[in-house]
Each structure stands twice: as structure tokens, then as C-alpha cells.
């Protein structure tokens, strides 16, 4: 779980970095649209990242299968349960709820792939060029229910990471007394900042904090000429 | 400290043996002194049951001074009751109020089957120790202690791990019934000392292998074991166990 989890954390860094480009829009009109479009095209058309994408799916599936097996095996180790369960008195709820949080993330992930990854790759295959993801985000995040599900997915991810980040280092024996404090700090910071950046995207589109795709696209095109 | 007497309702798990189903029985005890230990309160209850011609409750106990690790009771959802860093024998009745209802259950884990009532079979721990929790020394006169210099911090860490009394509270509190805190304490206290060096790699591999055979779960780092350990063994020992295991695996040591 630790190794696959760490790989997925590395993916989150890349994903978050690419998505965060969009917020450059707040510095200069057109800059975020352009920067995001470039990095999305680079990641989407580069053979190395395309191969890494296959690896990513493999790691996600491996992480899920490991998690399901671990949960089932561990449950079976206590055939008769307690009448009075220890509850939150000795451990935090999210450390005991990694399976549940992971399931919520998976449900979100299926929807997320259906919104962006699948249509984009389909068009790439059939028409040879990618979609304007800025535009697709704008369209997708018009509905309130989508925004709510995305924010809920990010909250699940945050709790999953609060435990998962540190836990991965502990499992691999790397959380030594010298680095434990540092790992915990980075872990909690990562678990708050990364999901917050992701959650900010649907919120920003819904509340109109980012310029309309049609206008900004036209502006960037004009500037290029 | 204020002394007071209390009347309590006890819901205690009764089970004839490992083969039959058990159930909770409710008992009333009166005039229990706040200065009694939890086990003394059980002695009073058992006297009462004997006078009533009923079978007394079987529970494990030995030293009653917090170092044998025998008193395996799960009290109101907590291993060894509400106080931290305490065995059941060191839990005093001043932890409770007059009129309280206390639920007492045995350790629950497939690897710790109930022998009778509140007594469970913890010999799985003994077999884990037999698999590698020892060092090989030549017989004859003991050599001078100063022949083996040991850094103070290492000696302290090793001693902190060696305070594990093998009570099983870690397994009882873990949602996975994992014995990793116990095993990590046993591996750590030897791995930190030069005397443990000879079997360092085979020890960790064989003990982990035995732990898996005994049917304990795996560690998901919830930290419940550390919170409930009467000797407050740190989960940093589990970090060391993982590291020792990975290093032994990379160097090609496999279980015998």
C-alpha cells in the first residue's frame, strides 16, 4: 500500500501543478488559459507521459486491489467483535476509515475520468487533436451537483492523505525519529494544500472567478497574431 | 484523595470454553471501595458468586503489580480500562462512579481464542518469541559487562522496548488484530544491542513469518496499539521493525 500510495502522491503533484496553471489567469488576462493549454497539450501528447499514464492506471488498480484484500483479510482476523468498541478514544476516525475514504475517492474518480479523460482521449484518437479542457471544465462545472461532488471528492482525498502520507513512510521504515516531524508536517500540508487547489477549480468556474472560455480563447488567439 | 464506596452493575462475558457460544451476564456489586483495584472488585464479585452457589468468573492474573501482563480485560471498550499506561490490576475503582455500568469482555482476536470467560489463550506470543526472540551466547563464565560498550541512547531505547510485558493489549485494541507493536518491541530491544547482532536478520524474518502463521492481522498505522499499551511502547518500534524486515529481505534472508 505504501509504495503504490507514494507513486499516486507523485502523480498528484504533477496533476496539481498542471491544473494550478489555470490560476495564472488571476495575474494576467489570458496567461492562465495559455499556460494551462500548453501543459495539458504537453502532458497529453508526450509519449513518456502517455506510457506513464498506463503505469498510473496499473498503480491505481493495484492500490485498490491491495486495499480490498488487506481490509478483507484484517476483518477476518477478529471473528467475534466487541460489544463496546474502542471508537475514537484510541485512534483517529480517518486512520480507521481508509477503505471508506478510498471508496469515495474511487466513485469520484470514475465520474472525473468520464468528464475529462475519456472524451479527451477519444477525440485525440478519432480526430487527432485534444479538446480545449478549459472550455470543458467551464461547461462541466456549471451544474451545482457536479461542483459539490468534486468538492466532496477533494475532502475525501484530503482525509485519505492526512493518514496515507505519513503511513506510507512508516510502512517503508523511513519515518525515523529524525525525520518524523518533517514527514508529518509535509504530509498534513500536502493533504490540505493539494486537495484545496483541486477544489478551488470547480468553485472558481461556478462562481465566475475565471474568465469565460470563449472570450479568453479569442484574446489569446488575437495576441498570438 | 477522597475515599468513597460505590454500587455497580457489571456486564461480564461468560463462556464455558472455546467450543461453545458465550453471552453477557449481569451482576450487581455493592459497597465497592474506591481504593480497591479492578481485580479486587472481581474477587469480591467471585466471593459473592461462590456464596450464591454459582460458578465464579475465570480471569487471568498473576503478579497484580502491573508487570506480568496477564490481566487481559477489555473494560468499557478499552483494553485494561479507561486509564492510559495501566494494566487491569493497576486500574483502581476510583476510575468509576457510584451507579456506573461496566462492560467487561475478553480480548477479541482469532489468534487469542477464549479459554473460559475472560481468559484467552495468548500462547501465540510465546511461539513468536520461540521463532527468534532470543540471542545465542556461549556457556561459561559471564564476560565483563564493559567488554561491550553500548551508547546510552541505544541502551535507553532498547530498554524502553524491552518493557513490553506481552499482555496483548496492542492486538486487542487494533482494528486489524495486528501484533506488530508486540513484535516490534521484541525485535527492537535485541536489534539495538550488539548481543542481538548475530541473529539480527533471521530473527526478524522468522518472527514475522510466525506472526503471520498465528493469524494476526497487518498494521495500517492507526496508532491504537500505542494509545492502549500499558507500557506505552512507541510505534516508532514498528518503523524499526519494518526497516529491519525490508533490510533483511533485500539481503536475501528468508524464513526457515
Descriptive notes:
The complex is a heterodimer of chains A (225) and B (256). Chain A has one domain: 3 helical TM bundles of succinate and fumarate reductases (Up-down Bundle). In chain A, 78% of the residues lie in helices and 0% in strands. By secondary structure, chain A is mainly α. In chain A, helix 1 (2-20) packs across helix 8 (177-206), helix 5 (98-127) packs across helix 7 (144-171) and helix 7 packs antiparallel against helix 8. Chain A contains nine helices and no strands. Chain A is elongated and about 70 Å long. With 256 residues, chain B is an alpha+beta fold. Chain B folds into two domains: 5-116, Beta-grasp domain (Ubiquitin-like (UB roll), Roll), CATH 3.10.20.30; 123-139 and 146-250, Alpha-helical ferredoxin (Fumarate Reductase Iron-sulfur Protein, Chain B, domain 2, Orthogonal Bundle). Chain B has eight helices and seven strands; from the N terminus they run E-E-H-E-E-E-E-E-H-H-H-H-H-H-H. Chain B has helices at 38-51, 123-130, 152-162, 169-173, 180-191, 200-213, 224-228, 236-250; strands spanning 5-14, 23-33, 73-75, 78-79, 101-106, 114-116, 119-120. In chain B, a hairpin with an 8-residue loop joins strand 1 and strand 2. In chain B, helix 3 packs antiparallel against helix 5 (180-191), helix 5 (180-191) runs antiparallel to helix 6 (200-213) and helix 6 packs across helix 8. The chains are: A mainly alpha (225), B alpha+beta (256). The interface between A and B is large, with 35 and 42 residues.
